[in-house]
């Protein structure tokens, strides 16, 4: 995998893939911006219950939020390890991020099924529609991230990941941190300020 | 460095020039289809109380005419030039992500075919809700058939193609410039491509969300746009036009870029006020985000919102006007050569100015209330999108065709094409100003003789068929040029930018030696090229995986269309398989 031909000179001095990824993140901001705006515009406009206060469980979601935040820390440690060539810890931290992501998805599955049992579905009211589409889109992003990191972890186990291609891990990390930041916005606006 | 031949080489190509040609021909066929739909519309409106097509078919015709022209003809024709010309103008061997580029094209092709497949199914359920697809006309209550599903899903697929291309061209233009090609030395066409790409990656997520809501309303029974469940149909309008107005600039900025290349070349003068033209383009890109509600004055958003959007709409005319004056000043005192490309560029200036002026008339909400949903608006945006975008694209075709094929299009035939288009275009759309102000509404399949507009409508129809004939002349010119066009040579027009420094058509690797740029007008200033040793040129091989990954998307779209869930899993599987093979195949750029 180590072909120096890929290390092109670029006009801005920034790796092509990294620049594309920053542009992608900018684009994603508009995607989540539209979803979050819709949620806020439709807040309090459901014609029937359940309302946010009836179903949202802030203590439980705080745990999954903490878990996602920690996974971002492990992501930082995984990248630092791979950059200094410490593949043992790179594998451990990458695995940690994957487990953190899976735990978060597990919490979301638990939350969604609980809400459905309490009578909140996509069809029930505007809260249900906006909530499930917004948090579901976020959950889908986390799932893609887990699949991506799992792929990198397998590559690491195969010995095909090293300091030479730390950039691939760095970009996956950018994605992971972005998804984490979006969750902080969602957690604040949807859960903490749900009145 | 011989070029690969055969079907396989085209299906797996990652060469930006070949992808540019694929974009061109695909978009050209969609332009003909969209034009054919327009001709049926005009034939139906030629006489009052005409029964050529039913009201239902008419709805499908204007819906697919608008959707096809915007998403399948004009945007991809712009993309054809982005692909072919931008890497040559910036002195690069390809785009930043050649396989992503191929993916964009295949997704565009499949999305266009997906949407148009609706014409051929039993009952031909083509989309019929207008290109703007206003809620709640698009709800299952008022549109129970699959028509709107084809539209919603087709547009989502096409959006992915545009987004991927947007990321690719941002990185290409920012990062792959030849040494010395500073941003303020970039040819204006490349600059406008950059601005357009930023608009694409910011505007398309918004319509994606709007379309996802509509899909959920139709497939999963949500109430995003349904008042019965507390939803607000106006949300659709806001999201659609929040995308829709930047989209207008996505359509016009590439044409402005082309004209900014053509006018200096055929005036033998540098573009007047280059920096101002560039900054105006960037400013238009920003301001394009602040005017969307002028499409919604008739909604009743209140006096404050109406005033703000009236003001921003009038303001955005300023950078546009600045550009027009710069183009005119470029001509002043120049050695003008009235080639076909130049004529189309001049046609662009005059017709786009008329469209711009009628646009300012509906910046005023009280005036707009009289004009909205009438043929006056149809006249306005055709002066902008036909008089502007299409004239600009034709200018680009005549200008760059010799670069792309090695042969010059016939100038006499080109001038016939130009005058037929110019006269036909004005004959078609100028009467619509009056037809509209005298009270004829848009999107109604017929009208009564009592309206007193029969003659003007007939005039408009005659003009439309004149445009049709002009396209036959152009088609013949393209066909004839394949064998009988004069050999172009590297720089038939005496252009100043880098694409003219290499053979026509360029070799696979574009530049034997990556040029060092010392001037904005590199070839005119005749700066001696510092001698550089020829480098080993590596041309990446083709790849099947962009095409395979692209196939996954329409397969996934079959799930919400047919309500058969496993299509989603099969499609996602194909997409993932394509992406993994793509990621791990040996492919050096």
Q: What is the topology?
A:
The complex is a heterodimer of chains A (195) and B (589).
Chain A: H1 16-41, H2 52-55, H3 58-83, H4 87-117, H5 126-157, H6 166-192
Helix pairs in contact in A: 1-5, 1-6, 3-4, 3-6, 4-5, 5-6
Chain B: H1 7-11, H2 16-45, H3 55-90, H4 98-116, H5 147-175, H6 188-219, H7 233-267, H8 274-287, H9 303-331, H10 340-361, H11 365-371, H12 375-405, E1 407-408, H13 411-437, H14 454-484, E2 486-487, H15 522-525, H16 545-562, H17 566-584
Antiparallel strand pairs in B: 1-2
Helix pairs in contact in B: 2-3, 2-4, 2-14, 3-4, 3-5, 3-7, 3-12, 4-5, 4-16, 5-6, 5-16, 6-7, 6-8, 7-10, 7-12, 8-9, 9-10, 10-12, 10-13, 12-13, 13-14, 16-17
Q: Extract low-pLDDT stretches of chain B.
A: none
> Percentage of helical residues of chain A?
over 70%
Structural class by helix and strand composition of chain B: mainly alpha
Report the span from N to C terminus of chain A. 53 Å
Query: What is the share of helical residues of chain B?
Result: 55-70%
* Side-by-side strand order of the widest sheet of chain B: 1-2
Coarse morphology of chain B: globular
Radius of gyration of chain A: 19 Å
Cα distance, first to last residue of chain B? 16 Å
Biggest interchain interface, per-side counts: A-B, 35 and 40 residues
Query: What's the mean pLDDT score of chain A?
Result: 93
Total number of helical segments of chain A? 6
Number of strands of chain B: 2
Strand content of chain B: under 5%
- Principal-axis shape of chain A: elongated
